[in-house]
Amino acid sequence: MSAWKKLAMARPAGAGFDADDVFSADIWSGTGSSRSITNNIDLATEGGLVWTKRRNSNQDHYLFDTELAFSGGNSGSFSKRLKSNTTDPSGSELNALTAFNTDGFTLNSNGAVNGSSGTYVSWTWRKAATYFDIQTWTGNNTSGRSISHDLTTSPEMIFIKKTNGTEDWSVWHTDLAANKFLKLNSSSAQLTGSEDLQSVSSSDFTVGNDSRVNGTSSDEYVAYIFGTVDGISKCGSFVGSGSNKVIDCGFTTGARFFFVKASDSGTDWMMFDSERGYSSAEYQLYANKSDAEVSSYDSVFGDSSGFGVKYDNNTNMNVNGVNYIFYAVA
Q: Would the pTM count as exceeding 0.90?
């Protein structure tokens, strides 16, 4: 068990659960054969999302969730996956993630997740009230469509993807201005549109009739819905300073995972976690790119309250006066 996971045992509880109950960052070297990733996240009972990325070579991000699941039930050789870095629909992937377990998940030999020469990382979210939820729906091409959710509090970030056809990801974040959205598969700045996500509440969210979020009756969608939980997760924003800046998330032992994206200019979706390291050694992946892990930049640093950012002209991190959004988990 890493030092970060030992520290996490003492993390503050919120909304009836602890951070270790609902999130895990894990790394492994591929075996080319069936293996289980045991992280004590109950996906089989509670449901959730597993996001994987091969670190040592170019490979699409693979996202597996318990709503799309498998081609033939709760487990099997063909798992449904999305890719954060493409517009691709959900595809059936052979020998990738083969089971959601009560203590993690099982992988097979697919090179995207467990090839014999690969190194990998995963980030796992368990569904829990106030923290994380997944919803699916069929389009009706009607603006003002209400989609119920089980978060029980107003969401602060939502990723939406059409699952049965080619389309951009639509990302809404609480600190974007009205009628603004981002694309998870793109480095572009925020876009303006009144027909993506229109409003949120503690029981539902409302979408327009853009094909990204609510096309015709032949279109299928999934939403990954994130909340802020005191001491456990934080959706927020900051203005770049051009010098070292601490981002206080209200944590006590630092962020185990976070991403940062400039909202008003073009930057990659920069992803960091404590298992790969970002204090003494920094390893970056980008949600919108298939690129292998980068370790030559110096953009962030650790802080017990959350994380810190530095000015880095290689990644356009913390540029003076630029607005950024972030999401972090303790």
A: yes
